[in-house]
């Protein structure tokens, strides 16, 4: 009986140490940046939903769904050329959005926060392909920021990649793109 009472007390205590936060999708921003030999493009994509679990001053879990249908470009001002780039990003050359409407960041875990910074790992799924990824998280109240660098070729996004195509010259697109994440939780 004492063992059962002790187990119950431990479970209640461990539950009390965990906090689950829901993403405020209207305040969260995901800004992407991709570079090529002759310049760069940047824009945003929207978070559909997400949650973050904090336990014992570290990230103990979390899952986020990114709505790939919301990808935008902010650097091209001509509506015609902007649409061409966004349509190309949505195509099978890049994110195959007609087939893969969402990307996922799941199974997030981190070390303990030290001075509101922690190293984190997660699984990133793009185009149905899941790969582990690591990044730093900075916490400021209910806001968590990160710069996540993604090697697109790991997700079968090879268009314009110097790893797969020769003689691209100024048309080569670098394999890594970045996501500046500003996650607001409530």
Helix share, percent: 10-25%
State the end-to-end CA separation.
Answer: 39 Å
Q: Tally the helices: what do you get?
A: 2
How many beta-strand runs? 9
Q: What is the rounded Rg?
A: 20 Å
Write the CATH architecture name.
Beta Barrel
| Category from helices, strands and their pairing | alpha+beta
Spatial shape? globular
Could you name the ranges where pLDDT drops below 50 across 5 or more consecutive residues?
none
Strand order of the largest sheet: 2-3-4-5-6-7-8-9
Largest sheet: 8 strands, antiparallel, barrel
Q: What is the fold named in CATH at topology level?
A: Lipocalin
CATH superfamily: Lipid/polyisoprenoid-binding, YceI-like
Instruction: List SSEs in N-to-C order.
Output: HEEEEHEEEEE
Q: Please give the domain count.
A: 1
How large is the share of residues in beta strands? over 45%
Mean pLDDT: 91
CATH class wording = Mainly Beta
Please tell me about this protein's structure.
It is a single chain. This protein has an eight-stranded antiparallel β-barrel with strand order 2-3-4-5-6-7-8-9. The N and C termini lie far apart (39 Å). The mean pLDDT is 91. It has one domain (18-184): Lipid/polyisoprenoid-binding, YceI-like (Lipocalin). Helices cover 15% and strands 49% of the residues. It is built from two helices and nine strands, in the order αββββαβββββ. The longest helix has 16 residues, at 2-17. The chain has helices at 2-17, 79-90; strands at residues 18-22, 29-36, 39-55, 58-67, 102-110, 117-126, 129-140, 143-151, 173-184. A hairpin with a 2-residue loop joins β3 and β4 (58-67). It is α+β, with helices and mostly antiparallel strands and 186 residues long.
């Amino acid at each position: 009986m004492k063992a059962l009472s002790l187990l119950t007390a431990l479970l209640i205590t461990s539950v009390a140490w965990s906090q689950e936060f829901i993403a405020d999708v209207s305040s969260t921003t995901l800004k992407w940046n991709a570079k090529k030999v002759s310049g760069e493009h940047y824009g945003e994509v929207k978070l559909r939903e997400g949650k973050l679990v904090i336990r014992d001053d570290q990230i103990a879990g979390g899952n986020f769904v990114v709505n790939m249908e919301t990808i935008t470009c902010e650097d091209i001002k001509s509506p015609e050329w902007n649409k061409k780039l966004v349509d190309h990003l949505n195509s099978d050359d890049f994110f195959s959005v007609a087939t893969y409407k969402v990307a996922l960041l799941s199974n997030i875990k981190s070390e303990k926060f030290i001075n509101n910074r922690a190293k984190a790992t997660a699984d990133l799924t793009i185009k149905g392909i899941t790969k582990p990824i690591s990044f730093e998280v900075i916490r400021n109240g209910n806001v968590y920021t990160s710069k996540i660098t993604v090697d697109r070729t790991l997700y079968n996004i090879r268009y314009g990649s110097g790893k797969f195509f020769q003689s691209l010259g100024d048309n080569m697109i670098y394999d890594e793109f970045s996501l500046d994440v500003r996650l607001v939780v409530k």
